[in-house]
Amino acid sequence: MKLGVANRLLLLGLLPEQGNILTLRVVREARQLLEFKADEVNRFEIVQSGPSFRWNQEKAEEVEIALSDAALGIAREAIKKQDAENKLTVVHIPLWEKLVESMPST
User: Fold this and answer.
1) Measuring CA to CA, how many Å separate 63 from each of 2, 15, 106?
2) Cα separation of 22 and 27, whole Å?
3) Between 42 and 105, the higher pLDDT residue
4) pLDDT digits (tens, 9 = 90+) for 62-97
5) What is the DSSP letter of 95?
6) CA distances (Å), origin 80, targets 73, 77, 91, 92
7) Burial, 88: exposed, middle or buried (Cβ in 10 Å; 0-12, 13-18, 19+)?
8) Count of the separate structural domains present in the chain
9) Mean pLDDT calculated for residue range 5-18
10) How confident is the model at residue 105 (pLDDT cuts 50, 70, 90)?
């Protein structure tokens, strides 16, 4: 799945921090794939200021992230839970479209 900087950050924030051991292993692997590598931080000019991130939008292209089916299922359930609790914001729309609307139902 191709993801840009904003969607990677949102997805990292949506993944659960608690769960059973199998879920946590899948989440750990997904986090490792979603985290920014040193060359991406430099290339995209990513800067963290407190809890906020900035990056050069002209340089930050989408990157193919090979999330497993299990990780995609966990991410899909996490964003659906946020939706059910009315906790999504407009910045979540592109991620919702990728995770929920453009993926076959499981």
Assistant:
1) 5, 19, 25
2) 9
3) 42
4) 999 999 999 999 999 999 999 999 999 999 999 999
5) H
6) 10, 5, 15, 11
7) middle
8) 1
9) 96
10) low
Distance CA(31)–CA(49), nearest Å, equals 21
Residue 37 domain flag: yes
Contacts by 32-37 with C-beta closer than 8 Å and gap 24+?
A: 33/65, 33/66, 33/67, 33/71, 34/3, 34/8, 34/65, 34/67, 36/5, 36/8
Q: Has residue 106 been placed in a domain?
A: no
> Does a structural domain hold residue 72?
yes
Reported pTM: 0.90
In a domain, 30, yes or no: yes
Q: Please say if the pLDDT value at position 102 is more than 60.
A: yes
Taken as a whole, the chain contains a residue count of 106
- Residue numbers of the domain that contains 62: 2-101
Output phi, psi for 56, to 5 deg.
-80, 105
Single-letter code of the amino acid located at 69: D
Residue 69 has φ and ψ, to the nearest 5°, of -60, -40
